[in-house]
Automatic annotation (TrEMBL):
Keyword Membrane: yes
Annotated organism of origin: Streptomyces phaeoluteigriseus
TM ranges: 32-54, 61-79, 114-132, 144-163, 169-195, 207-232, 238-259, 266-284
UniProt keyword Transmembrane helix present: yes
Protein's name in the database: DMT family transporter
The organism's taxonomic lineage, starting at the top: Bacteria, Bacillati, Actinomycetota, Actinomycetes, Kitasatosporales
Domain EamA, chain residue ranges per copy: 3-130, 144-283
Keywords: Membrane, Transmembrane, Transmembrane helix
Length: 285
């Protein structure tokens, strides 16, 4: 179950990050974060009401509040980095987020078997190579690297916090809702401050209605990924769940190949293969 939900996490995050990166090329990153997370908050609010998840409120929700404060910083940094591109700079470095939950798991006493340890090493190397890392170049690329490192630290922290926010499915709905509400409040405050400084809140031609489904997809896929990761981390070793969930850059790279016709370099193809081998080792360990 851990492997299945963690792989679902990587698929959802990979597609959400790809969509968020594309939207940020046409609209301010803060606007993408606020609009996508607002849509997700509304949907989750309906789910919470329908399932009666309010009854699950308790001290653990503070983990969701903390995740909601950290999340917008990570998302904003990541979307800006994706907009600066190329994705070969951003995607592989984002896998460093796995260091946070893996470290926490090891500190809590988790000790993966040798096959799992080998799978972790192979998968991480494969994901880095799958992004086709290009860390040399113009100042814009160096800025993308810095933003991605900030995002990776934030994502890793959210991994840990959201896994602790609830122990039940309905409680998880409530935790994700609280996290999104805090996301919107934090991102909205940052957007308001940016507008006060003269930054645009919307694209030059406004925000057309026909693009809202794309924002909804990004927000809901991100929510679903947080949920599947929480389930994966609660039903198995955090070290395994975190590494399998970190395969999302492979999905982002493949999406760029399929939709943007970005060509996969030899190192990327090799990296994707190694990531698959690492996944098999983790799943069978």
């Amino acid at each position: 179950m851990t492997a299945l939900f963690a792989l679902a996490t990587s698929l959802l995050w990979g597609l959400a990050d790809f969509g968020g990166g594309l939207l940020t090329r046409r609209a301010p990153a803060l606007t993408v974060v606020v609009v996508s997370q607002s849509i997700a908050a509304v949907v989750l609010g309906g789910v919470v009401v329908a399932t009666g998840a309010w009854s699950e409120a308790g001290p653990r929700l503070w983990f969701a509040v903390a995740a909601g404060l950290v999340g917008p910083v990570a998302l904003l940094s990541f979307y800006k980095a994706l907009a600066l591109g190329p994705m070969g700079v951003v995607s592989p470095l984002a896998t460093l987020s796995v260091a946070v939950p893996v470290s926490v798991g090891l500190l809590l006493g988790e000790r993966p078997e040798w096959t799992q340890a080998a799978g972790i090493a192979v998968a991480v190397v494969g994901v880095v190579l799958a992004g086709g890392p290009q860390v040399r170049g113009a100042a814009v690329q160096r800025q993308a690297v810095l933003l991605t490192l900030v995002a990776a630290l934030g994502f890793g922290t959210v991994f840990v916090l959201i896994a602790e926010a609830s122990t039940t499915v309905t409680g998880l709905f409530l935790a994700l809702f609280v996290q999104r509400v805090i996301n919107v409040l934090t991102g909205g405050a940052a957007l308001y401050a940016a507008v006060r400084r003269g930054a645009p809140a919307l694209p030059e031609r406004g925000l057309p209605w026909n693009v809202l489904p794309a924002y909804a997809f990004v927000g809901l896929a991100d929510v679903a990924a947080n949920g599947t990761y929480a389930i994966a981390a609660q039903h198995g070793p955090v070290t395994v769940a975190a590494v399998l969930a970190s395969l999302y850059p492979v999905v982002t790279s493949l999406a760029a190949r399929g939709f943007l016709r970005e060509r996969l370099r030899a190192v990327q193809a090799a990296g994707a293969g190694l990531a698959l081998v690492g996944t098999l080792l983790l799943a069978t360990g």
